[in-house]
Structure formats: C-alpha cells, structure tokens
Amino acid sequence: MDIHQLRIFISVFKNKSFSKAARELFLTQPTISEHIKTLEEELNCVLFDRFGKLIIPTKEAEILYEHACAVVEKLENLKEVLQKIKSAPSGNLHIAASSIPGTYILTRLISSFRKIYPEISIQIDISDSKTVIESLLSGKVTLGIVGTKLHKSKIDYLPFMNDELVIVSPQFIEESFIEPHEILKYPFIMREEGSGTRKEMERWLNEMGIDIEKLNVACTLSSTDAVKEAIKNGIGISILSIHSIKDETEYGTLKIVRIKNYTMSRTFYIATHAKRTLSYIYRLFYEFLQEKAFSL
C-alpha cells in the first residue's frame, strides 16, 4: 500500500465511480481498477460492491476512507510546513459558506486576507447551512461558515460573528415596532428548508408563541437576494439578516421593523469536521477569521 493507491481509493470513494475517479486523476479506468484490486488483495477485503456501472462502498471501505484521508492530509501538511520554511504561503482554499456570511461578510474579509497572503486564492461555495455541513461531513471541504448548528457531535463550531434577524417590509408597515402576533396579518416570504436564517427564524417565532403553520406564506425562495426583490415588489414581508439589507436600508428601499420586547439575535460559526486536521493555509485563514471577524 502506498500514498498513490490511497489517493486513488479516496477519489473512487468520493466519486462513487471508477470512471469519474479516472477523469479526476488523469488516469485510465483500467489503471484505477487495477490499483483498487491490488489494494483489496493486500487488505484481504472487498472495498466496493459492483452492480454494473454502480459501485457501493463496503463497511471496510468506510473505515479505510477515514484513515486514508488522515494519512493524505498529514502528508499535505508536511509539504506545506516545508513550503512555509522556503517561501510565502501559497495555494488554493476551497471553503463553503451559507448565504449571508458567504455573500455579505466573507468578501470583505477576503480582501484583507489577500493583502497579507497574495499567493493564496480562495474559492467559496455558497449554499444553505445544511448543505455546508453535508459538504464538511462528506469531505468535500474542510472549513465552512454557517448560521446554525447541525450534527453537533461530528462538527466543531467556533463563534464567528453576531447577527440580528429583523422583519423587512416594503414600506407598508408604518410602525418601527410591532407585536409578535401582528406578523400573521401580512403575506410572508419564506426561505427554503435547510436555510440557517429560516431555522433561526422558526426558533424565535416559536419562542414568541407564533405558530409557524399559521403564517400567510405567499412564496418560498431559495436565496436572500430573491427574497429582497420579492419584498421590493410588494409580495410580502420576511425576516432576514441585518447584514443582508445594509444597502437597501441606507437608501430607503426597504424598511426594518422589529418585534416589541424581542431581539432576534444569532451567531455565525466557523465549522470544521471534528476528526479532520486543517492544513497549513487553511489554518492561516481560520486564525485570520478568529482575529478579524468581530471587529467588523
């Protein structure tokens, strides 16, 4: 067993396909198959059950995957430590973020980060919090930013930034503060299932004694920008992060309405897999976020 075989195994496991692994690693499919066969013979176990073109990892493969990832990550860490000694840090960061921090917060921080580390490029996958956590659990990414906690036993969460959820109105609510039950009077624009904003909104409304099922839901949308456009067009009100509406409130296109005697606060978190080690450049970004985030 060597590191090359482990890389091939990891690619096959993640892609659930010999052909996709071959394309990813720029190898032929027979070469991929031969390495997996050699690995199975050496370990004296079947790693993938084959059903035509479909392959399903066995229990042994799941165990090997966790250890193989750790071995490959340690090797990468060693290379990066040696690189650090020789030159300025460089490489590609691939992270995932839920919509609010990914769209409205991280871009400001990345600008400052790249002034310090200009040789590090950053790719951000923006989705909902549930998808970000799934990406961490599957090994697709090693660092994420989310607005709610899921799978708490498998994911480590570090507080990143405070947020406030507010009612956002297209100007047809004259008051700046309303009673909780008044939300039910207006058509409501809902975020999609899996959204951290939606999960936190439901938690707060439940605390106020508001039955979610009684909301007059006009439509459900999968992005904050879409919700904002719907509000501007008079479809209804919604509850959004105050970070996402700074420009609109500054120019008066949207109005903030708060609920009497309640502040719907929440925290954004830096999320990492509890059993995975951050490589050097990821650790640099992680520590940078720790230092800079709450100063915004």
Automatic annotation (TrEMBL):
Q: Which NCBIfam families match?
A: LysR_Sec_metab (NF040786)
Protein name according to UniProt: Selenium metabolism-associated LysR family transcriptional regulator
Alphabetized UniProt keyword annotations = DNA-binding, Transcription, Transcription regulation
List the source organism: Thermodesulfovibrio obliviosus
What residues does the HTH lysR-type domain cover?
1-58
Gene3D superfamilies on file: 3.40.190.290, Winged helix-like DNA-binding domain superfamily/Winged helix DNA-binding domain
GO molecular function terms noted in the UniProt entry: DNA-binding transcription factor activity; transcription cis-regulatory region binding
- InterPro entries recorded: LysR-like_Sec_metab (IPR047788), LysR_HTH_N (IPR000847), LysR_subst-bd (IPR005119), WH-like_DNA-bd_sf (IPR036388), WH_DNA-bd_sf (IPR036390)
Family in the record: Belongs to the LysR transcriptional regulatory family.
